[in-house]
Amino acid sequence: MSKKIDLSNALYTEIHKCTRCGQCTYGKNEAAYIPLCPVNTLGHFFSHSAGGMMQIARSLYEDKLAYSPSLKEILFRCTTCGVCEANCGIIHDHQEIIAKMRISCIGSG
Ligand code: SF4
Ligand code: SF4
User: Fold this and answer.
1) What's the CA gap between 32 and 85, in Å, rounded?
2) What global pTM score does this model have?
């Protein structure tokens, strides 16, 4: 398996626990659809959220995705505000995983 991101087994396992609930973007009142994550201002697709970026990290690790200009735009839109980690009850390392993608994509050219 080619690795486009340096993930430990623990982080890769953590990513699999994402339920795609959306609370990392909308908070505990996700049904109101008021985005709290600055990345989500780019667009209202799931990929523009911490949960979406967890799936992106998984795809990169599994060599099913490559870094593209639009993907880099998503990754560097993150302000590291921590809203996702405060609202997700399952994953606790969003910012570390996003940082790992940023490091790897700079090296990807
Ligand atoms: S990262 Fe957490 S809050 Fe966001 S969609 Fe996945 S499980 Fe839900
Ligand atoms: S840390 Fe990044 S991904 Fe998480 S809510 Fe803030 S801007 Fe969004």
Assistant:
1) 19
2) 0.94
